[in-house]
Amino acid sequence: MVKKRKPGGGRKPNPNKRLMFSTRLEPQTMAALKAGAETFPGKSISAFAEFLIDRGLREREQEERDPALRALLFLIGKLAENITGVIHITDKGTRLRYKRKWHSDQFYFRAFKVAVGELLNAMEEPPPMIPEKERLEVVAETAEEIASPELAKLFIDVNKSPGAYGAYAFMELWTRAGRSDPLSEEERDLIREQPHLGKTIRSYFYHLPQARAALELSKSAATRTQKPKTKKTGD
Fold first, then answer.
1. Nearest alpha carbon to residue 89 among 77, 103, 99, 76
2. Quick one: three-class SS letters along 139-186?
3. C-alpha–C-alpha distance, residues 211 and 170, integer Å
4. Contact, 116 vs 110, CB < 8 A?
């Protein structure tokens, strides 16, 4: 007798399997794609096309950002260029080497941190939307609606001060940036079914590790920022 496969048996579908995509292009677009692939690592037309699609999607996401945030990021970029003096260099090769000095040379990196701090200090601090006492009451009321006691305590601790909130936001981002596991089937379903949430997932999984690699950041850097500062005698 032929054995019947049990329900759920057999090879499980791979949620991370690459999908087939085909489309028609104008002749000039295809010619430009082939020419660009010649200077792309591996010289693969399909890999180069995927790279361009990914970059285009990222640029569209950037356009949806808050205009004030885009302006701030622009100014920080200009500060990095001013710190390295790259704006005064005309030779392309030399300019490329100097571009990295803001994060590859200790002197320029410390100067960059000071400059960014001065920029943020120059911005006028907005008034609170609600009084501090009222804000903490809202935090406490929200925590009571959280089923998990651990999560409720975390929510209160995170919202007790701007410093605690900022530190948590950084650590959450850093943890996501260090993720190397493939996307789960549930995450891929969310990407397909909920475009807005999918953009966030794609950004966290693909773009954060790329940013971390470009900045040559190690995982130990996060723990260094969390070490408690010892109080010096006489302070």
1. 99
2. HHHHHHCCCCHHHHHHHHHHCCCHHHHHHHHHHHHHHHHCCCCCCCHH
3. 14
4. no
Residue 234 — pLDDT band, cuts 50, 70, 90?
very low
Distance of CA 212 to the CA centre of its chain: 8
Q: State how far the Cα of 175 lies from the Cα of 168, in Å rounded to an integer.
A: 11
Task: Write b or e for each residue in 61-70: b if 16 or more Cβ atoms lie within 10 A of its Cβ, otherwise e.
Answer: eeeeeeeeee
Q: Specify the length of the chain in residues.
A: 235
DSSP for residue 207: I
Residue 168 is encoded by which pair of tokens? 């948590």
pLDDT tens-place string over residues 210-233? 788 888 776 555 545 454 444 444
In this prediction the pTM is 0.63
Q: Where are the alpha helices (DSSP H) in 85-161?
A: 92-99, 101-104, 106-122, 132-144, 149-158
**What is the identity of the amino acid at 194?**
Q
Distance CA 21, CA 19 (A): 6
